[in-house]
From TrEMBL:
Translocase keyword on record: no
Chain segments annotated as transmembrane: 47-70, 82-108, 128-148, 155-171
InterPro entries per record: DUF554 (IPR007563)
One protein family per Pfam: DUF554
Protein name, entry field: Putative membrane protein YdfK
Alphabetical keyword list: Membrane, Transmembrane, Transmembrane helix
Length: 172
């Protein structure tokens, strides 16, 4: 129930603030500066957006960063870095250089969660972490559906939903 409420509220806020549109405009600006168009059109934006979302939204990113911040256990982040490195090679071979730039938001995202976890350690419960992981997993499912061209969900508009269970668990 908490995950559903977080998805609805986080998605509404994200759509109002147009996270996806702003991010796409930012990436398009980067693309114009850093990549040249091919005859099929550039995959730079697609590579950057897809891999950034894939690496940042995942349950391992959230849980690993939380474990790192709360207990100093970095094993999940180490495992995730190996998986991300291998997948980045595969993505870069098909999508191009946009994959490389996804390391910057990934570092900022995981670093922010780790620092936030250290600050919020007294408030975060196992239930909050479980709900955050659930929301992250649902967003990974949405990314997968987008990659398969089954649907076009603006996943970035829902990114705030990952953090809402922290407050929702306290009030429910």
């Amino acid at each position: 129930m908490i995950a559903t409420i977080a998805i609805v509220i986080g998605g509404a806020i994200g759509m109002i603030l147009d996270f996806d549109g702003r991010f796409n405009r930012f990436v398009d600006g980067l693309e114009q500066k850093l990549a040249s168009k091919t005859e099929n059109g550039s995959k730079f934006s697609e590579a950057f957006i897809t891999t950034t979302l894939l690496y940042c939204v995942g349950a391992m990113a959230v849980v690993g960063s939380l474990n790192s911040g709360l207990s100093g256990n970095h094993e999940v982040l180490f495992t995730k870095s190996i998986l991300d490195g291998v997948s980045a090679i595969v993505f870069a071979s098909t999508l191009g250089a946009g994959v490389l730039l996804s390391a910057i938001p990934l570092f900022l995202y995981q670093g922010a969660i780790t620092v936030l976890a250290q600050v919020l350690a007294p408030v975060l419960s196992d239930a909050a972490v479980a709900e955050m992981t659930c929301v992250g997993s649902l967003l990974i499912l949405a990314i997968g559906l987008n990659l398969l061209k089954v649907t076009k969900i603006k996943v970035l508009d829902f990114i705030l939903a990952i953090f809402l269970p922290i407050g929702l668990v306290l009030f429910m």
